[in-house]
Every structure is written in C-alpha cells, then in structure tokens.
Fold:
Amino acid sequence: MGPQPDSQKALARAYGLLAHRPRSGAEIRRHLQSAGFAEVPVEEALQTLVARGLIDDRAFAREWTENRMEFRPRARRLIVKELTDKGVAEEIANDVTSEIDDEPVALAIATRRASMLKEQDRASFIRRLSRYLSSRGFDYGTVAHAVRAVCKDSDHSW
Structure:
C-alpha cells in the first residue's frame, strides 16, 4: 500500500514551501497544520523530507546565519532568537552561532551606517547610530564601544 492521498498533498505543499527557501522542520509542520492537514499526513511528509535530506535543522541554521551575516548582519543573540522562533532547537542555534563575535560585527555596521548620518550634529549622530545598533540586537556595551570607535575615527568636524 502506497502513501495516502492526504500525505501526498501534504508532501506536495511542503515541496512548494521548500522551493521558496530552506525551512526548519517546525516551520513546515506549522505551515502544514495551518493549511488543515491532519497529524498523520504531516508526520509522513516530514519523515519523507528528512529521509531525502531536505529538512536538516542544523544545515538550515548554518545557512540562515551565513545569510544574515552577509546581507543583514545583527547581534548573535538576535540570530539565535530568529532561529528558535523558526523552530530550531536552542542548542543547535547556539552551537551554529558560537563563532559570531559581536564587537567587530557592530563596528562594521556602525562604520557603514555612519556614512549615512554624516550630516547630523554630534548628539543626533550618536543617538541615531546607537539606536540603529540596538535595533540590530547589540547590547549597550557593544553599542557604546562601536559608537566611540566610529566617532574617534570619523572625519566629522564636530
């Protein structure tokens, strides 16, 4: 006896989700359940995807982290939160992001952002740059260090 029609439909829907971008197993489960699929077809679809190597939370977490660091860098703790929100186990998220050092990341972001704020007075520059870094998940100490470094190296005339 082959796969049930609902299982095939769930699998087809999961393939459609994966065609857009890689996803965690929990993301696919949530999507399928919200689409009205029962537990058995959802589990059968997930088992098939895992067996075919199309769902691997560790690989997903690595790819997500690399993508974030290249295109929209942010603090390690914010990436961990994004991954856990997507259903990746906290242990995997922490392990995959363990190499991220927030200090140089914040400094690189601050340096790039400073060029957009060059017309600001000193107080506005510091406030806006600090707020921007904070919105990227960096803690107060990291933000302060990056802002000080950018101000010191800046060619502003304040």
In short: The radius of gyration is 21 Å.
